[in-house]
Amino acid sequence: MRIIKKIDELRAVVKDWKKNGLSVGLVPTMGYLHEGHKSLIDRAVSENDRVVVSDFVNPTQFGPNEDLETYPRDINADAALCEAAGADVIFNPEAEEMYRDALTTVNMTKITEVLCGKTRPTHFAGVCTVVSKLFNIVTPDRAYFGQKDAQQLCVIRKMVSDLNFDIEIVGCPIVREADGLAKSSRNTYLSREERQAALCISRGLNIGKGMVEGGEESAAAVIEAVENEIRREPLARIDYVEAVDYNDLKPLVKIQKPFLCAAAVYIGKTRLIDNFIVE
Ligand code: AMP
After folding, report:
1. pLDDT digits over 166-220, tens only?
2. CATH of range 185-274; options 3.30.1360.70, 3.40.190.10, 1.10.10.10, 3.30.1300.10
3. pLDDT tier at 56, thresholds 50, 70, 90
4. Of all atoms in ligand 1, which is nearest to the CA of residue 149?
5. How many Å from the N-terminal Cα to the C-terminal Cα in the chain?
6. In the β-sheet with 236-245, what is the strand arrangement from edge to edge?
7. Which residue's alpha carbon is at the smallest distance from atom 14 of ligand 1?
8. Which ligand 1 atom is at minimum distance from the Cα of 174?
9. Active-site residue numbers?
10. Ligand 1, residues 27, 51, 148, 179: which to mutate, most atoms within 8 A of Cβ?
11. CATH assignment of 2-172?
């Protein structure tokens, strides 16, 4: 497995693969890889001849008061995980290599303005821009994204359709810790007490999921039950809990499928997201 830092070098490697008729999978990440990322890499390895994992803490998707500087990084551990999983290349560019004096961004309206977009108004432009660039650099046949970031997956699918990228987007289920907490690179910020407190998110969402599976039709009732469970935890502060149509992310009154119940919750200073989807 190779660690590549330059765009031209990666392009040359991919060109060679394509010349030999090999299919290419791309797994975009911000590094500090865990089992959630690994599930995407495993799937990509099983479905493609060659796999590129991008490992890039993308500055443009962080807001001014967010955790860009402190975001955890460990390229050696990431390389070991990718190698063991059977990936062929880690693409680990510097921000300067990716952006130089770029003046272009990829913006999307509507579905980027709801849920996480309300408190992170520039986030999805950063995501769409970097993912477009990765798509153009790697030209993958398939790209793999986690349902953990359900809104991001929805945004990427829409971007691929709107901009006619000839790439199959594969959504992969959320990988959790044994006690239910969704795996996240940001979990490393949590103290022991906060780590325990963070369980209120998956607990709350599980209650909501049980209600929907039991036939509950009122979105407001589901949201209220999820919020009530999270509010029982003193270290938790809710950013949002919302129930939306998973196609257009519009709020639902009556539950209909596909349905996304998404939550963003601060545990101390750490903002965590989680969700459940009923297809
Ligand atoms: P990140 O490095 O946090 O930007 O995540 C890179 C990719 O891994 C995104 O598509 C995420 O949705 C996915 N991912 C992160 N955590 C998980 C998880 N716990 N389960 C499944 N996918 C995940």
Report:
1. 999 999 999 999 999 999 999 999 999 999 999 999 999 999 999 999 999 999 9
2. 3.30.1300.10
3. very high
4. 12
5. 37
6. 236-245, 259-267, 270-278
7. 146
8. 20
9. 37
10. 148
11. 3.40.50.620
